[in-house]
Amino acid sequence: MPAQAEILTRIARQSARPADIAAHLGVSAASASDSISSLVAKGLALRLPDPEDGRAQRLLPTEAGLCLAEKLTAAPTAVQGALAALPSQDQAALLRALTLIIRTLQEARAIPVQRMCVTCRHFRPRVHANADHPHHCAFVDAAFGDASLRLDCGEHEAALAEEAAALWRRFDAA
Ligand code: SF4
What we know:
By secondary structure, this protein is an alpha+beta fold. The chain has helices spanning about 1-15, 20-25, 30-40, 65-85, 90-105, 160-170; strands spanning about 45-50, 55-60, 125, 135, 140-145.
């Protein structure tokens, strides 16, 4: 069910090919296909021919699927509101702890890989002397702090395994 919710919220933002969905979730094509079939059987998604590739399909949400996706994203938005009310030091500590937990779960293959700063080839951890903004995002060419660490960034590009390990060592060297 979490996979179906993830797929539904993803295609509500933008239609996607099954192969891209499998890559996003970090699961096999067969496993993604099972979740997609369940969504289609529940009337929440449609498989349509891909206009850019006659042999491929794209997955789109139905009206019911869009309604459900809105409800699914409402809860995280409420959580984000509560987080925004915290003092910035607490936000930074919480995000840093979350990043650590998610990475540990990913390494144990308990959850799919997320598009987090600490696995992104644009991430430059601890390159600035500024204690509030020690990191740098090469994509937007800007410094930022732990409170702005991204857990699911649209501009994320996965670093190679060795590069990601080095990024983590530097990030975790505090
Ligand atoms: S592109 Fe996104 S994930 Fe990558 S470093 Fe910049 S903010 Fe983080």
